[in-house]
Hints:
Strand order of the largest sheet: 2-3-4-5-6-7-8-9
Oligomer: single chain
Amino acid sequence: MxxxxxxxxxxxxxxxxxxxTPSGSETAAATNESDAVASAESEGDGNAAPVATSxxxxxxxAGDTAGAEPQQASVPKGETVASLPLQRxxxxxxxxxxxxxxxxxxxxxxxSGVNTxxxxxxxxxxxxxxxxxxxxxxxxxxxxxxxxxxxxxxxxVSTYEIPNNTSFTxxxxxxxxxxxxxxxxxxxxxxxxxxxxxxLIN
Length: 202
């Protein structure tokens, strides 16, 4: 009887020993965890351990830059101006000398619009969209009693590029484009040389 009890006690001790003794992999994992804790504690007085890059950072913690929605650059609205920065008077189409001007190549720049030989146009709005760029909405009248036809009024939008106050290039949204430069009235042929345009340009 004593021998049987002794054998049972030895068997229980062996079973407890096997249950409490960690395997080789468990021992290694515990060692690694212990080393990591010791490493973190040793760095407490020095540089902080780096934060894992996979951790999310709130917009507030990142100075409202991380995690925030990207913002699109707003398109500045054009500044409304009263008139185009052009010398008022006669302009001739590029490629034509002032002395060779004709109805087909001449136009008159007024404060409030531009006249060609057949089509007067009045500016309705002018927006400065760049250093030398202007977007102009204008109404133009074509025909009428003076021409023996029915008057036709249209609204056009054009972009004017004005590198200086005596030349420009205009291009309409419909694709029509022209360039012109200023001509002193005295340099024009008759009848434009002596036309009184003071009321139109002042």
